Amino acid sequence: MEVYPWVGRFLQPMGSGTAPARRGAGRRRGGGRSGARRRARSMEAAAEVPAPPAALSCFSYNQDCTSLAIGTTTGYRLFSLSSVEQLDQVYESNEIPDVYIVERLFSSSLVVVVSRAKPQQMNVYHFKKGTEICNYSYSSNILSIRLNRQRLVVCLEESIYIHNIKDMKLLKTILDTPPNTTGLCALSINHTNSYLAYPGSATSGEIALYDGNSLKTACTIPAHDGPLAALAFNSTGSKLASASEKGTVIRVFSIPGGQKLYEFRRGMKRYVNISSLVFSMDSQFLCASSNTETVHIFKLEHLTDSRPEEPPTWSGYMGKMFQAATNYLPAQVSGMMNQDRAFATVRLNVSGQRNICALSTIQKLPRLLVTTSDGHLCIYNLDPQDGGECVLIKKHSLLGSGKMEENKENDLQPPLPQSYAATVARQSTVPSTSTMPGYSEDGGALRGEVIPEHEFATGPVCLDDENEFPPIILCRGGQPGKAKRS
């Protein structure tokens, strides 16, 4: 197992936080015993009023669609997606208010959070230990964050920052990107093909493809006529799907060459806002959701040079006629006739709500997951052979009191020595240690370096199970009070 010295130097306990005092508390003066009774009755009535529910502000699936993260006005929550009938809440934090970005790295303990209170600051947490690993501040508001096992990408409106996730070192800053007000970008989850895609133009549908490993531009893809609205890689990083702001046509390109492989038509009647594009893990299906009530699932058939021979029937004869006629039609018309339609669909109860979708295998069966902005997770069955209308089988509330799936492994481990490792491994109400700000090598991002005041452990101490990635390990390195860059 690798040892990352940066974790030992930048790991600190998260502050427990205290509730702010109510405005005007203690200012009212009572009138003797009657005033005291009135105050007592008012306090009892206030105690009976339930706290207002947390409003949903953001939601995202992890890279392999096995976990769901939501941000609320009071914090964030993580859910496991291993069961249809039961939604297990893995973790809940109420220490960071107004979370509008929360991203989890696969099923590890590493989670990245951005709050509206500090929209220019990214915080990286080890949520199982309740500790902050590090944080970075940027020149403008953070619009989106993407993760894989090699890279962490932070997207601002006119710049993109690429970090090495193993030590959080800033590797590259892509400056002067076209205005990207929505933070649209996609990062391949396959770290060996760590490609990054983002808009190459604010007025056309040009895709800029960047190699996150070599830190070089790969190519540009003229995908659409209008500005881009959605981007998504498949699990291997060999295909890239895109949609424009019109939302009628979805195209799939080969990576890194950029050749068009598929073209799907979502509809012709109206323009829509595509809110989510996602491949299934086996790359056989592509799902698109929008602000309408319909979710479309397209099937990526194997490409062949010629279509199968039609049977000698009237319909087969007409099919050949239409296929031959496309050679004499204008390019736009023939292209429309050759576009494939949806293999399966879902009809949502309401339209106009923001939603995201995922294609996952749960309990050995293919499922479609749809998370909506009203705080619900809907699970549908998907027929991989015949398609058609998907059937709703379960609807979960994300803002209710979910069942906590606590990790009991810490209770089985022997007690750690009374050192810095033992201090950070448990919750503490001691105020956080001092922070020394410093610029990264190219001056692009301001890093808040957490310098622990305790002595480092004499040897490596594992803080989590072996499935953790990256392995969060404390190790000896450097003198206390000094930050040593990797």
Q: Would you give an account of this structure?
A:
This protein has a domain at 1-14 and 54-137 and 403-486. The strands form 8 sheets. Strands 1, 6, 7, 8, 9, 32 and 33 form a 7-stranded antiparallel beta sheet that branches. Strands 2-3-4-5-31 form a 5-stranded mixed beta sheet, with no helix packed on it. Helices cover 11% and strands 39% of the residues. The longest helix is centred in the first third of the chain and has 17 residues, at 32-48. β22 (274-279) and β23 (285-290) form a beta hairpin.
- Give the strand tally: 35
Helical region count?
Answer: 6
Low-confidence spans = 1-31, 45-51, 304-311, 331-338, 402-443, 449-486
Q: What is the CA–CA distance across the termini?
A: 18 Å
Nearest-integer average pLDDT: 76
Helical coverage, percent range: 10-25%
Structural class call reads mainly beta
The quaternary structure here is: single chain
Beta-strand residue percentage? 35-45%
The best one-word shape is: globular
How many strands, what sense, and barrel or not for the largest sheet? 7 strands, antiparallel
Radius of gyration: 26 Å
List the topology elements.
Layout: H1 5-10, E1 12-13, H2 32-48, E2 56-61, E3 67-72, E4 76-80, E5 88-93, E6 99-104, E7 110-115, E8 118-126, E9 131-137, E10 144-147, E11 151-155, E12 159-164, E13 169-175, E14 186-187, E15 195-199, E16 205-211, E17 216-224, E18 228-233, E19 239-244, E20 249-254, E21 260-265, E22 274-279, E23 285-290, E24 294-299, H3 314-325, H4 331-338, E25 344-347, E26 355-362, E27 365-372, E28 376-381, E29 388-389, E30 391-397, E31 403-404, H5 409-412, H6 420-424, E32 435-439, E33 446-450, E34 461-462, E35 473-474
GO biological process, one term: protein localization to phagophore assembly site
GO molecular function: phosphatidylinositol-3-phosphate binding
Protein name: WD repeat domain, phosphoinositide interacting 1
